[in-house]
Amino acid sequence: MCAKQTERVSVGPISGFPEWTPAERILEQRMLDTIRASFERYGFSPIETPSVERNDVLTAKGGAEAERQIYRLTSLYPQSVEDAREYSLHFDLTVPLARYVAQRYGDLVFPFRRYQIQKVWRGERPQHGRFREFTQCDIDIVGDGELGLMADAEIPAVISEVFSRLDIGNFCIRISNRKILTGYLEHLGYNEVETADILREADKIERQGVGPVREYLEGNGADASKIDGILELVQAEGSSQEILASLKAKTGIGDRYEQGVSELSTVVEFASSFGIPEANLQVDLGIIRGLDYYTGTIYETRLLDHPQLGSICSGGRYDDLASYYVGRTLPGVGISIGLSRLFSQLLRADILQAGAATVAPVLVTTPDESLYRKAIEIASDLRSNDISTEIYFEKARLARQLRYASRKGFKVAVIPLDEDLADGKVRFRDMESGDEQSVLIANLSNEIAKLVK
Amino acid sequence: MCAKQTERVSVGPISGFPEWTPAERILEQRMLDTIRASFERYGFSPIETPSVERNDVLTAKGGAEAERQIYRLTSLYPQSVEDAREYSLHFDLTVPLARYVAQRYGDLVFPFRRYQIQKVWRGERPQHGRFREFTQCDIDIVGDGELGLMADAEIPAVISEVFSRLDIGNFCIRISNRKILTGYLEHLGYNEVETADILREADKIERQGVGPVREYLEGNGADASKIDGILELVQAEGSSQEILASLKAKTGIGDRYEQGVSELSTVVEFASSFGIPEANLQVDLGIIRGLDYYTGTIYETRLLDHPQLGSICSGGRYDDLASYYVGRTLPGVGISIGLSRLFSQLLRADILQAGAATVAPVLVTTPDESLYRKAIEIASDLRSNDISTEIYFEKARLARQLRYASRKGFKVAVIPLDEDLADGKVRFRDMESGDEQSVLIANLSNEIAKLVK
User: What is the pTM of this model?
Assistant: First the structure.
C-alpha cells in the first residue's frame, strides 16, 4: 500500500488471451453449461487433467505443428521452482486423454466415455480468432482392443443435441470415412506418401478451388480420367443416400474402399435412428482433416447461415490412442468444440449478443438505511424460492439505485417503502416496461417468478 | 503410429498437480456447481481472467511469498514463442481481479460484485495437501471510492449458504476486525512494525500456544499486565455477544479500537439478520491472517468436527484493491475457498466418498445387435425426459454388460428383450437391489424417474 503507488503498472490486454466482460462471460458460461448438459445426457463422464504434462509425454508423437507452440513452465526467479522445466502446458485435450487412459488403464471401465472441458494453450502468432489460450470441449469413446461402429453413429447424435440446444442457427454435420478416399487412391496406384499429399491438396479445395490438387495430380503424371475420378469423388454432391448409392455402385476398387463405404453407410443409417434430421447430417467426401490421426469416420460441423465460421465441431475415429504410453491398442472416436473461438466469432458476427451483467434477475433496493433489515428479509425469501437476488446496500438516492439496476440489466427492482410496508405490501418495478405495482409481501416471490421465468 | 512406438514414454503423476478419477471428478464438480449456485443466488456475476498476467502486474505489490513461486511461461523450443517470457501464470485471483477492475474501470458498474472460479498456480514444494495447481473459488464486492459495512455483513451469509449446501458437516465462521487489535496495541504504545510482529506471533497461538507471543512481548520489555491484556483480548472466549460486550466495556483505548469494535458489532448484528444460526458465526479476535492486506473485517471458516482441516474459507476487508494499476481508491471485501485442497482433504478424511463413475443413472443394454434400434429409441425417450442415459453398444454377453453397469455405478439397467418387446414392454433392473420388472415402454421413463430422483 506504500512506496510503489506512484509508479503505476499498465494493464492492457495480452494478445491472444481472451477475456470477456461480465455480460459476455455469462453468455459464454451458458454455452458451456449447455454443452456439458448435452454431453452428460449421453452418459459421458467428466474428467479433468492437470494443465501440464511432462515434456516427453507432450512430444512423444512428434512432428505436430502444435509442438512448436508449446508453452513450457519455468520459474520467474531462477532455481526457486526446481523441476518446473520438466513440464509444459498441454496444447490439446487428446494427449492428456491418452496419458490419462494409459496411466489408469487398470482402473478404468471400457468403453471409456469421457468429456473434458478445459483450457488449452498454443503459442500461436495471435491473429483473427486465433487464441493462445482457449477452452476446448471434447468427448471421446475409447475401446479396449476394439470399439464397435455404433460409437461412430452416436457421436453425430451428441453433436446434434449440442447445437440444437445452443440454438445458434441451422447447422450441418458433414461426415465422411477416410478409408474411401485412401482406398480409391490406393486402387489408382498411389503409395502412402502420394496419397497423403493428394489429400492435403484436396483439403484446400474449399478455400482455393480444385487448382492445387489438379496441379499436383498432373505433375504426378495422372491422366484426365484419373483426375476426374478423384475430383468426382471429393466433390460428389446430392443427398447422403444418393452419394452412398453411387459409392456402392463403384465395384472392384478394393477392400479398403469397400470397408469405408460400408462403415459410412452403417454410421449414417444408425445416426439417423437417433433422430437427427436429414438436413443436419450430410455425407461429404470433401472433408479431409486430421490426416495423420483419423483412420475411419470423420466429422465436421458448420453453421449453414454462417459458413465463414468454418468448422465449429470436428473429430473422427482413430485406431490407436495411446501406444506411445501403454502397450495396448485403444481405438476411439471423438470430437472437439473450440469454444473460445466459436464464442468470439458468434459475438463478432452478432449471432449472440451480450445481455445482462448479472445472473440474478432481482435487485432489492434500500431507499433508506432503516430498511436494511426488511430488504434482507425480502431477499432471503426470494432466494429461498430459487430466485437469485442482489441487495443494493450503498447509500444512494433511489434514482441512482434504479440506474444501477438498469445498467446491470436486472429484470425487476424491489422497492421497499414505509407506506407500502405499513400495509404488509411491497412495491416492485418491471425494469423493462417501467411498470410498478405493490403486492402483499407474501405474494412477492410468486409475482416475481411470473415475470422472470 | 510408427517408429517411436517401441520406446514407451512413462506416464506417472506429476507431483503437486492433482488429478482425480472420473468418480472423484463427478464429486468435485458437484461441489463446484454448489458453490457457483450459492454465489449466483446472492447476485455475484461470473468473470474469468486469462491464466496469465504480465510479469510486472504480478509483481507490482512485491514481497509476497507467492511471488517466488510464480510459474513463468517460455517456449519449449527457444524463439518460437517470442513474447511468452513477458507473462506468467497467476498465483491467486486477487491480482487478476485488481487488474481486471483497473483495466475496465470505466465500463464496470460499482459496487462490482464478481465471483471467479479458476485454476491458480504456485510453484510450492509439494507436500501434504499443498498443490502447485489448484482451483480457487473467490467472491469480492468492490466499491468505487467507498463501500458500506453491509457488504461485510453479507459475506458470512454467502459463506453460510455455501457450506450449508455443501453439506460436509457443521461449520463455524469466525469473524474479527483488524482495527481492534491494532488499535489496542497502538494504545499500549507499540509502533506499526512492533504491532505487525506481535500479530505475527499471536497468529501462532493455535499451533504453538502462547509461548512465542509471550516471549516476544517479554523480550520487548512488556510487563505482566500488558501481556495479560493482549492475551486476554486475543484469547477471549464466550458468545459473540459476550465478547462484544466486554470489548465495548473497555473505554479510552482510542478511535481505531472503538471503530473496530463498532464495525464488528454492526457486521455481526446484520449478519445474523441474514438468518445465519448463532452457532455458525463466532467473534474470535484470535484470527489474524492477511496482515499486509486486510484492514478491517476478517473471516475464517472451519469444520467443527474436522478442525485438522484448518480454515476452509477465509477473507476480509481491504482498503485498496488496485492502486498499483489505477488512480482510484477501490475498497472491497471478499473471501476465497481453496477448493482443490478442501476436496482432497474431504476425500482423505472420508467425509466425502467417491460414488458412481457416471453422471447418467441409466444404462440401456443391448443383449443383441438386432436390438440397437430399439435401444436407441428407448434411450432417446429417456433423454427427452431429462434422464441421462448411456447405451452399451459393444458386442458382449448380457452378464458382461450388467457387470459394466455395476462397475460404473449405474442405478438402473434397461434390458430390451424380444419376449417383452412383443408385449410393448421392456425390462429394467434396479442395480442396487437386483430387482427386475417389466413395464410398458410408454411408462418406462416415469418408473425410472421414481427410482433415480
Answer: 0.96
